[in-house]
Specification:
This protein is of the alpha+beta class. It has 2 domains: 1-29; 31-130, Immunoglobulin-like (Sandwich), CATH 2.60.40. The protein has one helix at residues 2-28; strands spanning 32-39, 52-58, 64-74, 79-90, 95-100, 115-123, 128-130. A 4-stranded antiparallel beta sheet has the order 4-3-6-7, with no helix packed on it. Strands 1-2-5 form a 3-stranded antiparallel beta sheet, with no helix packed on it. A hairpin with a 4-residue loop joins β6 and β7. The longest helix has 27 residues, at 2-28. The radius of gyration is 21 Å and the shape is elongated.
Length: 131
């Protein structure tokens, strides 16, 4: 009887661990890898940033048609967290280097972003990935 309880308990524990691992593994597999992400220096005679550059690679097996990024930025006044979406046809394994109008309305506080990650991707077949 004690052995049966021990076996049932062990199976329940393994099931719980498997469900936790499976959820973590799916959330951790971001198909987009960020190579560079920085806020652009102001244009002459301006205090505002000139936008944001994101260089990334689609590591998925399909062409991406839409990639949404969440980018954090901090200057001396505020901590910002904004999103920007890149649309086009982004082939697997090809480096993409795009600039966006993101943060061009805030006082420049240096090139470094506090965070930068893809949070959703739409694939050419209509399927989607999100973090």
């Amino acid at each position: 009887m004690t052995r049966r309880i021990a076996i049932l308990f062990s199976l329940a524990a393994l099931g719980a661990l498997a469900s936790l691992y499976g959820g973590t593994a799916l959330a951790a597999k971001n198909p987009i890898s960020i190579q560079q992400c920085f806020v652009q220096v102001p244009k002459p005679l301006s205090k505002h940033a000139s936008g944001t550059t994101i260089v990334y690679v689609n590591n998925g097996s399909k062409t991406a048609t839409s990639v949404t990024f969440q980018v954090g930025y901090r200057n001396s006044d505020h901590n910002y967290l904004r999103r920007v979406t890149d649309q086009g046809n982004f082939q697997p394994g090809v480096q993409v280097d795009h600039s966006f109008q993101l943060y061009n309305d805030v006082t420049y506080g240096g090139k470094n972003t506090s965070s930068c990650a893809a949070i959703s991707v739409t694939w050419s077949d209509g399927s989607k990935w999100s973090s």
